[in-house]
Amino acid sequence: MIATTTLLGFAAASVLLALAPGPDNLFVLTQSALKGRVSGLMVTLGLCSGLVVHTTAVALGVAAIFQTSETAFTALKFVGAAYLAFLAWKALRAGAEPLGGAADAPVDLRKMYLRGILMNVTNPKVAIFFLAFLPQFADPAKGHLGAQIFFLGGVFMLCALAVFSAIALVADRLSAWLRRSARGQVVLNRVAGVVFLGLAAKLALAQR
Fold it and tell me: What's the chain's Rg over C-alpha atoms?
């Protein structure tokens, strides 16, 4: 069993890390601003589901491959960069939704959920981060290491879920007035496209 003080320190660090500007929370912010809070929350659920994959990889030792293999790391980061570039292309080409606001237009929530999963799983930096971060709070003397890693991963996911959900709700409120105008929607799409392009370039240039 992980000590209470260790667990509290881990939770606090997880919240701060989730709040730090990065691809995941920026992705939630732009999607919530463009398509409404429900879309932002579905993206959040997808991102947190992706963390299950990274937690499992750390527990099983698979994440070490991306830390030691340049080929594996490069392949995955370019897949992620290509996906972000595709999202940028779609956002830059998108026009305004029908009057009434983007938030009122039908949204494929399953697609938003899967988009969040892909965004998270195809980022090898997350796998390496988890490999470096989670074991620091695990103690062999406290029980099975794999079980502790899964538990810590679950705590991190809950913290990320809370933070990203708050970001989605705030972004939705702040951008509601923009979504009421066709010009505002176009501006939001262009901003999202630039953000996605920046994230794609950052990921493509990432080093282990």
Answer: 18
Q: SS in 3 state form for 15-71? A: HHHHHCCCHHHHHHHHHHHHHCHHHHHHHHHHHHHHHHHHHHHHHHCCHHHHHHCHH
Tell me the C-alpha distance between 199 and 40, whole Å: 18
Rounded Cα gap, residues 176 and 113, in angstroms: 22
Residue spans of the domains in the chain: they are: 26-204
> With contact defined as beta carbons under 8 Å apart, do 153 and 138 qualify?
no
Q: What is the pLDDT of residue 102?
A: 45
pTM: 0.74
Cα–Cα distance measured from residue 3 to residue 199, given in angstroms and rounded to the nearest whole number? 37
- The pLDDT tens digits of the residues spanning 124-158 come to 778 878 877 887 787 777 778 788 889 999 999 99
Q: What is the pLDDT of residue 146?
A: 82
For every residue of 54-115, DSSP letters joined together read HHHHHHHTTHHHHHH-HHHHHHHHHHHHHHHHHHHHHHHH--PPPTT-GGGS---HHHHHHH
